[in-house]
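@channel anyone free to eyeball this complex?
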Amino acid sequence: MDEATEKAPGAGRKPKRAMSDNLYAVLLVTPATIIIILFALFPLGYAINLSFRYADLTSAVGIGPYVGLDNYRFALNDTIFWESARRTLIFAVGAVSVEMVFGIAIAFVLNQLRWFQGIVRSLLILPLAAAPAAVGLVWRYMYHPDFGVYNAIMSMLGLPERNWLGAVNLAMPSVIMFDIWQWTPFVALIVLAGLQSLPKEPFEAAELDGASTWQVLRRLTFPMLTPVLTLVFVLRSIDAIRLYDAILSLSHGGPGTATETLTYYLYRIGLKYFKLDHASAISLLFLYATVVFTAVALRSMMRVQAERARRA
Amino acid sequence: MQAKTFTMADLIRYTLVIAILIVFLFPIYWMVSTSFKPPPDILTRPPKWTFQPTLSNYVYAFEEANFALFLKNTLIVSVISSTIVIVLASLAAYSFARYNTGAGHLMFFFLTTRMMPGIAVIIPFFVIFKVIGGTAIGQALSLGLDRLGALVVCYTVFNLPFAIWLMHSFFQDIPRELEDSARLDGYSRLQVLWRVVLPLAVPGIAVTAIFTLIFSWNEFLFAFLLTRDVARTITVGVAGFWTQRGIMWGPLSAAATVCVVPMLVFALVLQRYIVRGLTFGAVRG
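replying in thread with the prediction:
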């Protein structure tokens, strides 16, 4: 654009340079694009193909003839599939809502700290960086009905001891509690960053006008935080739906199927029973649902980006 | 400004903060402390809070359970894939930031691939690596099942979109004027990228590299399903202490500590950038 205003040297070869600029830009993106398209679309095509065939690796046929929509019919009539989808939703709603509420509350407390804020912030990062597969197993030990530290704490407080991961009704809340432990700091840190980047002027004006704390929160803080809150909510929801490591290390989907989410069910039929046909059909339904959800939800991320570009 | 004295409100806040920190740090403390417990003290009811520390769990994990191999595998896979990711992502992110290639659509498509549940695409990956692993090229590049090359490919694919988004935000911060004036000084476009932009982007590149390293290191699903013994990584190794005969809590805690603590240190190094990284560059901390 500066070439348009400045006439002298570049004027003559402007059209040619604009062309090669585009080419240069495309060339820079090409390697990454090839890899992503190859490894995103090829497996997708493969899964689509499998989902229309008979494919049971435990049978003598292996990958067999095309069977039309049979696998999808199976999936849609499969009560275990719907049950695990329901559990995935229960997990996601339970975990994400508590994480949002606690995370926002913690962010407000941290924002008002006058000393040691930096240290507290860095200590809160730690749960996030721990591999869920590894700390999940440590939590299994902590949840142990006999030797676990949580029951020891319960009895110190005079509360009844529980069979955290062993009781059908308590297993899912226990898995949710693990997720809350790991991801509440994530919400808190991002909301804190959002709070600290709010402009000062509207708040000073509100103070001069004698607005109450509640009014300031409702009229100023939360509306201005909305983009950040939406973003955190979207990222957390996507991750919660995809959760797998924690289920495997905490409960193996059990007791019975009490904590078997969609991801774990897919693992069971696809990679333990090798019913690739059913697994592929269910994968694709799951993938379709998540891609639609993310494509809609991630628009908020684009909006935060655009907003920043506009301000810069 | 507020007075610098400690008020009643401060007392409440700091009490709360201490409680919050205890809740969130306690599991990590318990993991580390269990890893130093002598075996007889691990299965006691109630659990022991004080004990004579010992290294025997670590000795068992490394000598009996071959944990050193898993550690080595993890290091190789995460370093190689992070390097590839950084090279490819810097080029792409620069192009997106400077030339707005694809008008945002391509970047958005990349992001959606990152959000795909791994388990939903694992079967094709499994079959592909099974087939490629049988061929001569596949063997030469160690791309089969239970081979490190396969994991390098997976981690590269899954970290690329993240790295592109994060680096895009760092490239956006570099003033265009610098590039334009370097162009006027007669630098070619590649020279501008190599001599002007990349040196300025070093902090962003370092931050992105550490993030992709942490993600690869902590990855479990692909490592668990695509490896058996030779290419096992550290997270799968930790899970390996859950055996048919029961769970060996002591060595497991030692292994988990070895797996988790280096990443905690890395995360602390990153702390200024942690929010930015976790939001794919969308929120600046």
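from a first look: Chain A touches chain B through 101 residues (CB under 8 Å).
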